[in-house]
Amino acid sequence: MLALILGLVLFLGIHSVRLFAADWRAAQIDRRGLLAWKGLYTVVAVVGLLLIIWGYGQARLSPTWLWVSPMWTRHLAALLTIPAFILLAATYVPGTRIKARVGHPMLLGVKFWAIAHLIANGTLADLLLFGGFLAWAVALYVVSRRRDRLAGVRYPAAGFSRDLIAIVIGLVAWVVFAMWLHGALIGVRPFGG
């Protein structure tokens, strides 16, 4: 469990520096240079992610159950991950009305993903992992939206076709991940089999 917690602190911490410690980040970039900062950022993020993966895998070997979710929550979780994938796609498809409306679709997608997994999973490791990501995404979303409003940032929308592209990419990615990759990478097949 310690590896999971340390991984969450490193991964979510480094992804929060720009918003919660902007002055410290700027000082590090001034002192070390942008390339060195990006290198440090990448190393910390990768180490954090690897610790999360390893720590969560270890915790799953001897789980501490906090609650047992009914079987129907898996179906609800599967449905809730659909908008998570669409929002993720909208992050990278330029000019979507989705991004213009919500500002930071990836953070909103992380919230959907985390809530979906909290509904369907009830171990202490699940609460730490998905609850940690949920708390991080909520806090970062609030700070990011406030920063955008103060700076007058607006995300341009190019038209409905961009939203349609994001929706199609999100749905295809969801099907591929839910049907094949989740089982291969995570060890759990959302739809059995």
What is the terminal separation in angstroms? 29 Å
Proportion of residues in helical segments? over 70%
Structural class: mainly alpha
Low-pLDDT sequence parts: none
Mean pLDDT: 95
Taking the sheet with the most strands, its summary is:
none
The total of beta strands comes to 0
The Rg value, from CA coordinates, equals 18 Å
| % residues in beta strands | under 5%
Q: Secondary-structure element sequence?
A: HHHHHHHHH
Give the overall shape. Answer: globular
Query: What's the number of helices?
Result: 9
Structural features, described:
This protein has helices at residues 2-14, 17-20, 22-32, 34-61, 72-92, 97-102, 105-120, 124-151, 160-186. The protein is an all-alpha fold and 193 residues long. The model has no long low-confidence stretch (mean pLDDT 95).
Can I get a quick summary?
By secondary structure, the protein is an all-alpha fold. The chain contains 9 helices and no strands.
Describe the SSE topology.
Layout: H1 2-14, H2 17-20, H3 22-32, H4 34-61, H5 72-92, H6 97-102, H7 105-120, H8 124-151, H9 160-186
Highlighted features:
single chain; 193 residues; mainly alpha
